[in-house]
Write a structure and sequence with these properties.
The protein is of the alpha+beta class and 607 residues long. It has four domains: 193 residues, Rossmann fold (3-Layer(aba) Sandwich), CATH 3.40.50; 93 residues, Translation factors (Elongation Factor Tu (Ef-tu), domain 3); 86 residues, Alpha-Beta Plaits; 119 residues, OB fold (Dihydrolipoamide Acetyltransferase, E2P) (Beta Barrel), CATH 2.40.50.250. It contains 15 helices and 35 strands. Strands 18, 19, 20, 21, 22, 28, 30, 32, 33, 34 and 35 form an eleven-stranded mixed beta sheet that branches. An eight-stranded antiparallel beta sheet has the order 12-11-17-8-9-16-13-14, with helices on one face. A seven-stranded mixed beta sheet has the order 2-3-1-4-5-6-7, sandwiched between helices. The chain is globular, with a radius of gyration of 27 Å.
């Protein structure tokens, strides 16, 4: 059967996974009476809850005698490690762009990787039926983007289509029939080249492993594209590291190919196809699986280095062990090592004491997803504030810079520019009207300056602004950037919070907890209205006497406490604070629970 391998790339919320749904439906991948969930490729619980793609996943459809392997890629730059590996398995990309928003930062990030590999793009302008759609402007911006990323003449001569993924149609003309996706299928078959590996089927077998999975029955599963030769079940092969070192020799117990949504056992894998292999015990991502006669590993795509590091430690608060069952540092370490094995964008290092672990990755969202998965598995953790990774170049300290794209109402543009270019040391690169009373602001800001900024940004723009960020490059250190200005309210007692006490504390600041919640000494229960930290007593009840009041007491009415998501909590804390994460709770606390130790630490920090 004729074969095509493509990846679909897009910014978050531009409709990529919805389009894949329609491609599967119209290719006959589902039975007529089969119940199919919306965004069927987002199979992970977190993906469904957040509405984003986190893990790259292949699928395949058949169209007029051609098998098309489609890889749905993450749209967020924090998961760029997934994208960089996946693009080595395909021969073309479909770039999906919202006709109203145009190319966005994450689009630029993934597209630059695809163009650097020489892949020929197909541009699909999605959501052209929206009232604010401007497909011609979006198309011009795509061309300008490709040119700025150094695309060659073949890549600049890209075909484009107008589509509505939700309604299941794509046409070469804006006023086309708008019936189905057949025009897009035909364009993929005619424009994307067949895998060059098809010409190497008579050579020795070799395959580059790009993703690692696990099956409860067959163990480890490595997925990749067969580069040369063919492989049958039962054959003996070897695994080579990136530098050519032999890792292990094993017998292939199962070969699975992607057929529709599922995987199907096949007897033989051919060059060019994307398959999963079972039987290995040590081989992992970026290793070469090959015949015993092969002694040279395949080139693995270099992965961009991590930009932030977060310390994962055991939960040593007074409430430790009440929610989760996995609390020992040994268990936490094993889980993190397992994650680093399958996710090459994450690096793990032990701290000197051995009780905590430094986890380096791309951004707060990537860290938040890892922590969220661990708490759902029953782990209890204490998490530090993210620290940006610096490096030395030519005797000079350089730091990561991010390109920030902001869409805000015109009236809020001033305060956003002031915050980004003032204390956060950013540089404004572009500002233009985005239509409908909005302004688009593009700035280059140090990663340090963006930690904790998103919540402040939403407050400044009354929740109407949209902020996107992507790694831009490295630049000389910009100097000190002030952290959070407000202090915090710290509990001075252990026990259960009382509504009357919290009601009296509302003048002091905003609360993070409600009544009848467990608190302990050193736990952060709110944000102080001033810059200093303040120790308060959330357990102090009303003193009652046997003298009846002349009037009835008013019922205590508390302001609704602020509930932070995991990423917001991690970004909010200061250097001397931690996030306590358990399966049922997210709490903030001081790193040093004992007040005397806290004061001693504060004095040493000031000196």
């Amino acid at each position: 059967m004729d074969l095509r391998n493509i990846a679909i790339i897009a910014h978050v919320d531009h409709g990529k996974t919805t389009l894949v749904d329609e491609l599967l439906k119209q290719s006959g991948a589902f039975r007529e009476n089969q119940a199919v969930a919306e965004r069927v490729m987002d199979s992970d619980d977190l993906e469904r809850e957040r509405g984003i793609t986190i893990f790259a996943k292949p699928t395949s459809v058949e169209y007029k005698g051609t098998r098309i392997n489609i890889v749905d890629t993450p749209g967020h730059a924090d998961f760029g490690g997934e994208v960089e590996r996946i693009l080595s398995m395909v021969d073309g990309v479909v770039l999906l762009v919202d006709a109203a928003e145009g190319p966005m930062p994450q689009t630029k990030f993934v597209t630059s990787k695809a163009l650097a590999l020489g892949l020929r793009p197909i541009v699909v302008l999605n959501k052209v039926d929206k009232p604010d759609a401007e497909p011609d402007r979006a198309l011009d911006e795509c061309f300008d983007l490709f040119a700025s990323l150094g695309a060659d003449d073949d890549q600049l001569d890209f075909p484009h289509m107008y589509a509505s993924g939700r309604n299941g149609w794509a046409d070469a003309e804006l006023d086309g029939p708008r019936k189905d996706l057949h025009a897009l299928f035909n364009l993929i078959v005619n424009h994307v080249p067949a895998p060059r590996q098809l010409a190497h089927q008579d050579e020795d077998f070799s395959m580059l492993a790009t993703t690692l999975g696990a099956d409860p029955f067959v163990g480890r599963l490595l997925t990749g594209r067969v580069e040369t030769g063919r492989l049958k079940v039962g054959a003996t092969v070897q695994a080579l590291s990136r530098v050519g070192q032999k890792i292990e020799q094993f017998r292939v117990t199962r070969i699975q190919a992607f057929r529709g949504l599922g995987q199907q056992d096949i007897d033989e894998a051919l060059a060019g196809d994307i398959v999963s292999l079972a039987g290995m015990s040590k081989a992992t991502v970026a290793d070469t699986i090959c015949a015993l006669a092969v002694d040279e590993p395949l080139d693995a795509q270099p992965i961009d280095p991590p930009t932030i590091t977060v310390t994962f430690g055991i939960n040593d608060s007074p409430l430790a062990g009440r929610d989760g069952k996995k609390v020992q540092s040994r268990v936490i370490r094993n889980r993190l090592m397992k994650e680093a094995e399958s996710n090459v964008a994450i690096k793990i290092a032990d701290t000197p004491g051995g009780e905590a672990f430094e986890v380096s990755g791309r951004g707060e969202l990537q860290m938040g997803v890892l922590i969220e998965n661990m708490r759902r598995e029953g782990f209890e953790l204490s998490i530090s504030r993210p620290q940006v990774i610096m490096r030395e170049e030519n005797g000079q300290t350089v730091e990561p810079i991010e390109e920030v794209t902001v869409d805000v109402d015109d009236e809020y543009s001033g305060v956003v520019i002031e915050k980004l270019t003032g204390s956060r040391k950013g540089e404004l690169t572009e500002m233009k009207p985005a239509g409908a009373g909005k302004t688009r602001i593009i700035a280059h800001v140090p990663s340090r300056g963006l930690i904790g900024y998103h919540g402040e940004f939403l407050t400044d723009t009354r929740g109407t602004g949209v902020l996107n960020r992507v790694f831009h490059g490295w630049a000389p250190h910009k100097g000190d950037i002030p952290g959070r200005r407000a202090g915090v309210l710290i509990s001075m007692e252990n026990g259960t919070s009382v509504a009357y006490a919290l009601w009296n504390l509302e003048d002091r600041g905003r609360m993070f907890i409600g009544a009848q919640e467990n608190v302990y000494q050193g736990m952060i229960i709110g944000e102080h209205s001033r810059e200093n930290d303040l120790e308060v007593n959330p357990l102090k009840g009303k003193k009652l006497t046997n003298v009846r009041a002349s009037g009835t007491d008013e019922a205590v009415r508390l302001t609704t406490p602020i509930t932070m998501s995991l990423e917001e909590a991690i970004a909010y804390i200061d250097n001397d604070e931690l996030v306590e994460v358990t399966p049922n709770n997210i709490r903030l606390r001081k790193r040093f629970l004992d007040p005397h130790e806290r004061k001693r630490h504060a004095r040493s920090t000031d000196q």
